[in-house]
């Protein structure tokens, strides 16, 4: 895999939201406005980048039996850092994202890249992977938020759109609207890829961080 392929795979083929269906809580919760989506995407990408590089650097030092707790400590530290930065320099965004900003610490997207990629590759490749996955996550959030904000409130980035503001559908701004927009985007990705965004052989227990516990590490 070239470095370009490593980056671009996270945008469509291995999009963490629309293909792997990971990190759906913030996707459904913060996408009522496009500005919130971009803020969450940037914050998550920052944590992904820092944690991937850090884990790649210390992967040969951390004993295998305690690697998951070590990942948690590293990721939680970077999440705390980004939370403090957002609170200090983008306080309205900090209030808008609410609890979902510190919950990046338990986002399965971050942990999956740490275990499946950073733990096995160099810091440079891990950084590229993080940027690609972060870009895919941010684009998925932005697409969701754009659909919901434009149709749900007739605005975009908080600015009213002439001709739409008086004909909005408030349902899109509510919880059911999040599921509707998400379903539409997943259907579009499946249509674009002819249902092959993720090959069947990529599913299974082999890549699960807990596979060794239940004894299914060799399952496909």
Task: Give the helix/strand layout.
Elements: H1 3-8, H2 24-29, H3 34-58, H4 67-89, H5 91-97, H6 108-118, H7 123-153, E1 155-156, E2 159-160, H8 175-192, H9 211-214
Antiparallel strand pairs: 1-2
Helix pairs in contact: 3-4, 3-6, 3-7, 4-5, 4-6, 6-7, 7-8
Task: Describe this structure as you would to a colleague.
This protein is mainly α and 220 residues long. It has one domain (3-214). The chain is 60% helix and 2% strand. It contains nine helices and two strands; from the N terminus they run H-H-H-H-H-H-H-E-E-H-H. Strand 1 (155-156) and strand 2 (159-160) form a beta hairpin. Helix 6 (108-118) runs antiparallel to helix 7. It is globular, with a radius of gyration of 18 Å. The chain starts with a helix and ends in a 6-residue tail after the last helix.
Radius of gyration: 18 Å
Mean pLDDT, nearest integer? Answer: 84
Helical content (DSSP H or I, runs of 4+): 55-70%
Return the domain count: 1
- Please state the overall shape, judged from the principal axes of the Cα atoms: globular
Q: Beta-sheet strand percentage? A: under 5%
Provide the spatial order of strands within the biggest beta sheet. Answer: 1-2
Distance from first to last alpha carbon: 22 Å
Strand tally is 2
The assembly state of the depicted protein chains is single chain
Largest sheet: 2 strands, antiparallel
Q: Tell me the structural class.
A: mainly alpha
The low-pLDDT segments are: none
